[in-house]
Amino acid sequence: MTDLVIEAANSTPSASPKQGASQAQAVTSEQGATSEIVQASAWYLYLICCANGHLYTGITTDVARRFNEHQSNGPKTAKYLRGKGPLTLMYQEQVGSQGDALRREIAVKKLSRAQKLVLIESAEHR
């Protein structure tokens, strides 16, 4: 069996990662091979309501930043949302990894409008 030694990739005490950013660790095996383990940051699913009443579903690691990007109508705005403001953030939920978020996004996009509104309502009553 191979013994692994785990060391922080950035061992200076003054260096701290950004909030929400991924942290990396170097892993060194007995043979000296080094690989990086990346700790995933939390992913979120969110629903936005457009001025015309349409619902938009997306995923991100920072809901406030992404919502502001959508509202700004800048280059990072989803094409679907351009010119459909004012926008309202209706729902958000933490889902774990990016893969989990993608699977949840697909599942929510398959829901009917009525089912999405029930999801939004259930979150408001928590």
TrEMBL record:
PROSITE patterns: GIY_YIG. PANTHER family: UPF0213 PROTEIN YHBQ (PTHR34477:SF1). Residues 41-118 form the GIY-YIG domain. Belongs to the UPF0213 family. It comes from the Bacteria. Transmembrane segments: none annotated. This is Endo/excinuclease domain protein. Residues 9-29 have a biased composition (Polar residues). Residues 7-29 are annotated as: Disordered. InterPro entries: GIY-YIG_endonuc, GIY-YIG_endonuc_sf, UPF0213_domain.
